[in-house]
């Protein structure tokens, strides 16, 4: 085995090896962090998680992506997940926790992880905590991206996209030069199916009903930090850094 990996390394450009070595040296001094990001759609979790990931050398666990990867790799858990999906059933909580359990053993998750999109229910949170307890670890912080529904509606329903380039606009915050058309090509802009008021309303209802109790559950353990997710992204980043350095 060793010889084949040596060949693999020999093919990697020096600058990439050095960059990775420096990253690992910098990471070795960072405290371990196991984080959960909770917030409704449009609250800015997607903007902040790559910043947190890089700052603290964590791995980012998006459960939807992990499920798809397990199915594609045909791991034992992936095969079970595919059976459920093929029947149109939801993948069981135990399976998702098993996939997280597998993922956090990877070297990239050595310093900890950011969980995004899970747990969505208190039962899932309990199963996650049980699994972590077996490994002798626990969740260090839950970042609650708190934001008013009305602000979210304005944020999300104002989003317009130029489909072929992926350029995004916002009717209020970043409007195109000419309403409804792309600045560069002059082609019409579209709205994502999920970015309508009706879809947002149902997603928010589900969030309040299922996921807000998760915040209370972790609140009782004293690990929740409430962020002002309505602030500009830079200010939210500063808040996150304060919370995680304390």
Which key features would you list for this structure?
single chain, 246 residues, alpha/beta, Rossmann fold, 5-stranded parallel β-sheet, two-stranded antiparallel ribbon, 10 helices, 7 strands, 14% strand, P-loop_NTPase, kinase
Q: Any overview of this molecule?
A:
With 246 residues, the protein is an alpha/beta fold. It has a domain at 31-148 and 211-245: 3-Layer(aba) Sandwich (Rossmann fold), CATH 3.40.50.300. It has 10 helices and 7 strands. It has helices spanning 2-10, 14-28, 45-56, 63-73, 76-86, 93-103, 122-134, 149-157, 197-219, 233-245; strands spanning 33-38, 59-62, 112-116, 141-146, 159-162, 167-170, 224-228. It has a 5-stranded parallel beta sheet, with helices on both faces. A hairpin with a 4-residue loop joins strand 5 and strand 6 (167-170).
Tell me the layout of helices and strands.
Layout: H1 2-10, H2 14-28, E1 33-38, H3 45-56, E2 59-62, H4 63-73, H5 76-86, H6 93-103, E3 112-116, H7 122-134, E4 141-146, H8 149-157, E5 159-162, E6 167-170, H9 197-219, E7 224-228, H10 233-245
Parallel strand pairs: 1-3, 1-4, 2-3, 4-7
Antiparallel strand pairs: 5-6
- Major sheet: order of its strands? 2-3-1-4-7
Name the overall outline: globular
What percentage of the residues does DSSP assign to strands (E)? 5-15%
Fold-level CATH name of the domain at 31-148 and 211-245: Rossmann fold
GO molecular function, one term: ATP binding
InterPro entries: Adenyl_kin_sub (IPR006259), Adenylat/UMP-CMP_kin (IPR000850), Adenylat_kinase_CS (IPR033690), Adenylate_kinase_lid-dom (IPR007862), P-loop_NTPase (IPR027417)
Catalytic activity: AMP + ATP = 2 ADP
Protein name: adenylate kinase
